[in-house]
Design goal:
- There is one protein chain.
- The chain has 9 helices and 14 strands.
- Helix 2 runs antiparallel to helix 3, helix 5 packs across helix 9 and helix 7 packs across helix 9.
- Helices cover about 35% and strands about 20% of the residues.
- With about 350 residues, the chain is an alpha+beta fold.
- The protein is elongated and about 100 Å long.
- A hairpin with a 4-residue loop joins strand 13 and strand 14.
- It has a 5-stranded mixed β-sheet.
- The structure holds dinuclear copper ion.
């Protein structure tokens, strides 16, 4: 069965009475995209191996216990010729010993292998040569701070993490408000982002592709629309992405009205655009159009979605912290025509 994260998000948005906003096209999402058994990263592979071991042991116990039950029911069922109840047995030392010792061994094996897997999955420090990225959870979006191509340079972006294939990625995590949890099942298990208590996780994407995830700790009304998107690309493509993200925004003359409108209105209080405004409450918009989705995954990144979003974010993502500024269609149009130049 095909399960589409974005379709679900779009369904809930349309349920709230939105205009039709295009859901992310060209991303065939199947159940496999969030499947822990389709791991593409060493820690996710360890989790997959543990999951199979647990399933095998529990499955074996299930078959043995149910088999014994069915055998007993068939073999010892009451028969017409039986004059009275069979002889009742009270207490059996060998059986008591067996059902005490066997579960102890099973629990011991499961506990030890789980502890070993936790040790393999969690790290106290960054793997050698890792790309060290800062992740900050916000209601309801993800902030990423990726090291730039030169020392001291940082690329600030949102919701979409671009990483090189084959290189370890070390995520240093914190939260700006409540507890969130970063979970991209094909890359690693869940890691909570706790206010005032830094945490970390890591992964190495072994193949190129888009890996999806979901905030995995209930964090308020739009928890379900706090989607994760990791795009793993070849090293050369990553360098190109980074170089492009380091470019200053271009002030195109034909959208100067929209730019002025954006900077005059409350937009600039919350959003940053390198060199023009430095609001820190919402996502940085410096290279907005280089991202594939809008609103942490509720819609595709295009002019149509931006128009609906700016007109009233509450229709697409009810409860989100961005208000409707009650702009006229012309004002929204001006701002959108400016934003779409932020490539
Ligand atoms: Cu953030 Cu749930």
């Amino acid at each position: 069965m095909a399960v589409s994260v974005f379709s679900l998000a779009c369904l809930s948005a349309s349920g709230a009475g939105t205009d039709a906003v295009a859901c992310v096209p060209g991303t065939p999402l199947t159940a496999g995209d969030l499947n822990i058994f389709h791991s593409v990263s060493p820690p996710a592979a360890k989790i997959r191996e543990l999951a199979w071991l647990v399933i095998a042991i529990c499955g074996g116990i299930f078959v043995l216990v149910e088999g014994a039950l069915v055998y007993a029911i068939v073999k010892f069922r009451a028969r017409r010729a039986d004059a009275e109840e069979p002889r009742q047995v009270f207490g059996s030392t060998p059986i008591e010993m067996a059902w005490t010792i066997i579960p102890l061994i099973v629990v011991f094996v499961l506990a030890l292998t789980t502890v070993r897997t936790i040790g393999e999955v969690q790290r106290t420090e960054a793997p050698a040569g890792a790309l060290e990225v800062e992740v900050i959870g916000h209601q309801w979006w993800w902030e990423y701070r990726v090291p730039g191509s030169t020392a001291g340079r940082t690329i600030v972006t949102a919701n979409e993490l671009v990483v090189p294939v084959g290189r370890p990625v070390w995520l240093r995590m914190s939260s700006a408000d409540v507890i969130h949890s970063w979970w991209v099942p094909r890359l690693n298990g869940k890691t909570d982002l706790v206010p005032g208590h830094p945490s970390n996780t890591w992964f190495t994407a072994e193949s190129a592709g888009v890996f999806l995830g979901q905030c995995a700790e209930y964090c308020g009304t739009q928890h379900a629309n706090m989607l994760l998107r990791v795009r793993a690309v070849e090293a050369r493509e990553f360098d190109a992405w980074r170089a492009q993200q380091e470019q200053p925004p271009v002030a195109a003359a034909e959208v100067s009205a929209g730019r002025a409108r954006f900077l005059d209105l409350a937009c600039a209080n919350c959003h940053a655009i390198d060199g023009w405004c430095d609001g820190a409450f919402g996502p940085s918009l410096t290279h907005l159009m280089s991202r594939e989705t809008l609103g942490a995954g509720v819609a595709s990144m295009d002019a149509e979605s931006l128009r609906a979003w700016i007109d009233d974010p509450q229709r697409l993502k009810p409860g989100c912290n961005m208000p409707s500024l009650k702009l006229s269609d012309a004002e929204v149009g001006e701002i959108v025509s400016f934003l779409v130049t932020l490539k």
